[in-house]
Design a protein that fits this description.
CATH architecture of chain B: Orthogonal Bundle
Distance between the termini of chain B: 18 Å
Structural class of chain B: mainly alpha
CATH topology of chain B: Non-ribosomal Peptide Synthetase Peptidyl Carrier Protein, Chain A
Shape of chain B: globular
Oligomer: heterodimer
Order of helices and strands of chain B: HHHH
Distance between the termini of chain A: 18 Å
CATH superfamily of chain B: ACP-like
Mean pLDDT of chain A: 97
Low-confidence stretches of chain B: none
Helix content of chain A: 25-40%
Number of helices of chain A: 11
CATH class of the largest domain in chain A: Alpha Beta
Structural class of chain A: alpha/beta
CATH superfamily of the largest domain in chain A: Thiolase/Chalcone synthase
Strand content of chain A: 15-25%
CATH architecture of the largest domain in chain A: 3-Layer(aba) Sandwich
Number of domains of chain A: 2
Number of strands of chain A: 16
CATH topology of the largest domain in chain A: Peroxisomal Thiolase, Chain A, domain 1
Shape of chain A: globular
């Protein structure tokens, strides 16, 4: 018998809201967090909008011991993990340390910290480079710091597959729980809105150069022309269902199915891998297309990527066959953090019976999708599908289900 | 005896700047002979602290001696061993 894996805690840091309540009420009311970059002067760059977190002061949440050694992304991840553990109502100090692990995803690591130390190196000399640069920039740093702070010594690691990584990390968490670890802190936070990080993101040529916050990132719109990056994501507490039940935990739902594929090489005439990822995830969940009540789409925001996704969804569910939403139109694309935030939104959707809207989009009629536009849609949701793609051909799909 | 060139107050100030203070630790308590591990500083924190002292005082610390100094008193002695000749020169 394969163990059932459930989610019992959520920690949310999104450009349109910090914490579950702020994020969810903003998201249901269509409030977005996209604006001109304030963390540095963007006037010399072709893309100038981002989804930035506001009101986050690390020193309010973390001891000063952690500040000199952490990038902004890790501070956010540590605090989101604290919130998620609190939401799960479990105290790591009361659990066996080798029975808890941390598996997150990362697309960039600690870029702002790295930029500062490179500036120190080239302007002041190697003696001025922080010893903490040895790990503060690294992809695995969020997992490592969460593990140290909470005394979690079980299976841990990091998954790097750009935008798909958030689902891949949760899938890896599920594998480790099925192998016998009772709790894994998972999900992802990415945040690299600094000049060095920005230049790296610009290199893909996929960033929106629009200056209008409400028209810059419009997936499935005829005017789609790129995406707005954001910072943040969500940390989830995944637990073995039996252990969670024994301690009387409140359960958001089950990680029921997962599929991942890699696209054929560019220029190939073979079909892109997204449809297959969806079918694998459905089969893994023992679910039929009819069981899915809503799809949280990846929402690339460029015509080619949107077409691939619209065709994959309609191939599996039929034309206009399932409700589709892209709440990340309110946050921008958060790289690894985007899909865990969508998972959190899917659980809250199941809890409240309300699908959050896609905003700013006038859907292109060529895409046969039933998009939930502008206003939230009230409907019972028992099973949801979350899609995520990563630059480089990564496709991942995850089915989450309300527990009976 | 010469006055201490680098004293506990200097070390505490540098620790705060280089590595911060852990939850539940009071640097103003009686820490002179408390092991660094007990007050939340591992080798990397001490490396960073040593680096800051080297920059501030224009000296070079003996890396092996720094890594073996496991209390504030021992660390202060390592710094003063370099500082005294540097200032005498």
């Amino acid at each position: 018998m394969t163990a059932t894996v459930v989610v019992t805690g959520l920690g949310i840091a999104a450009p349109n809201g910090l914490g579950i309540q702020d994020y969810w009420s903003a998201t249901l009311s269509g409030k977005h967090g996209i604006g001109r970059i304030t963390r540095f002067d963007p006037s010399g760059y072709p893309a100038r909008l981002a989804g930035q977190l506001s009101g986050f002061e690390a020193a309010d949440h973390l001891p000063s011991r952690l500040l000199p050694q952490t990038d902004r992304v890790t501070r956010l991840a540590l605090v989101a993990a604290d919130w998620a553990l609190k939401d799960a109502d479990t105290d790591p100090a009361q659990r066996p340390e080798f029975d808890m692990g941390v598996i997150t995803a990362s697309a960039a690591g600690g870029y702002e910290f790295g930029q500062g130390e490179l500036q120190n190196l080239w302007s002041r000399g190697s003696q001025h480079v922080s010893a903490y640069q040895s790990f503060a920039w690294f992809y695995a740093v969020n997992s490592g710091q969460i593990s140290i702070r909470n005394g979690m010594k079980g299976p841990s690691g990091v998954v790097v597959s750009e935008g798909a990584g958030g689902l891949d990390a949760v899938a890896q968490a599920r594998r480790q729980i099925r192998k016998g670890t009772s709790l894994i802190v998972t999900g992802a936070i990415d945040a690299s809105i600094c000049p060095w990080g920005w230049v790296g993101q610009l290199s893909t040529g996929k960033l929106s150069t629009s200056e209008e916050p409400d028209r810059a990132y419009v997936p499935f719109d005829r005017d789609a022309h790129g995406y707005v990056p954001g910072e943040g994501g969500a940390i989830l507490i995944a637990e073995d269902a039996d252990t969670a039940r024994e301690r009387g935990a409140r359960v958001y739902g089950e990680i029921a199915g997962y599929g991942a594929t890699i696209d054929p090489r560019p220029g190939s005439d073979r079909e892109p891998g997204l449809r297959k990822a969806i079918e694998v995830a459905l089969a893994d969940a023992g679910a039929d297309a009819r069981d899915i009540d809503v799809v949280f789409a990846d929402g690339a925001g460029d015509p080619a990527g949107d077409l691939v996704e619209a065709l994959a969804i309609s191939a599996v569910f039929g034309d206009h066959g399932v409700a589709v939403t892209v709440p990340k139109t309110m946050t921008g694309r958060l790289y690894s953090g985007g899909a865990p935030l969508d998972l959190a939104a899917a659980f809250l959707t199941m809890r409240d019976g309300v699908v959050p809207p896609t905003v700013h989009v006038e859907p292109c009629a060529d895409y046969p999708l039933d998009l939930v536009l502008d206003e939230p849609r009230r409907t019972e949701v028992r099973t949801a599908l979350v899609l995520a793609r990563g630059n480089g051909g990564f496709n991942s799909a995850m089915v989450v289900r309300a527990t009976r | 005896m010469a006055t201490k060139l680098f004293a506990l107050e200097d070390l505490k100030r540098t620790l705060r700047e280089a590595a911060g203070v852990a939850e539940g630790v009071d640097l103003d308590g009686d820490i002179l002979d408390t092991e660094f591990e007990v007050i939340g500083y591992e080798s990397l924190a001490l490396l960073e602290t040593g680096s800051l002292i080297e920059r501030e005082y224009g000296i070079s610390l003996d890396e092996e001696a720094v890594s073996e100094a496991n209390t504030p008193r021992a660390f202060i002695d390592v710094v003063n061993a370099q500082l005294a000749p540097a200032q005498a020169a």
